[in-house]
Design brief:
mainly alpha, elongated
Length: about 100
């Protein structure tokens, strides 16, 4: 049986479900990961769908906070805080993605 899925589709599903379920701290990202992992079509695609956006988002947050701030050191500290918040969201999303990828 051939598995079909799309990493881009998994990313989009994870993003929109995470936005809709932001008020559920652990369960929201877990549900988003399960659905996005199933849409990604497997565990490998699900892992790519989790880590690609989180790395890009964390780097963007760090760069923008450092460049917008008048003081680069304060901006770098604020950007690092954003990266930590992004990484805190990835844990349940990753577990859900692995479960969803295994179910696909």
């Amino acid at each position: 049986m051939e598995k079909s899925g799309s990493v881009i589709g998994g990313i989009l599903w994870m993003f929109f479900i995470s936005l809709l379920l932001f008020w559920l701290p652990v369960i929201g990202p877990l549900i988003a990961g399960i659905v996005g992992g199933k849409k990604a079509g497997g565990i490998g695609g699900a892992l790519a769908a989790v880590f690609l956006p989180s790395i890009v988002f964390g780097a963007m947050l760090f760069t923008l906070a450092a460049s917008i701030s008048g003081l680069p050191l304060i901006g770098a500290i604020a950007g690092a805080g954003g990266v930590v918040l992004s990484l805190a969201h990835v844990g349940p999303l990753l577990i859900g993605a692995i479960i969803g990828g295994a179910l696909a």
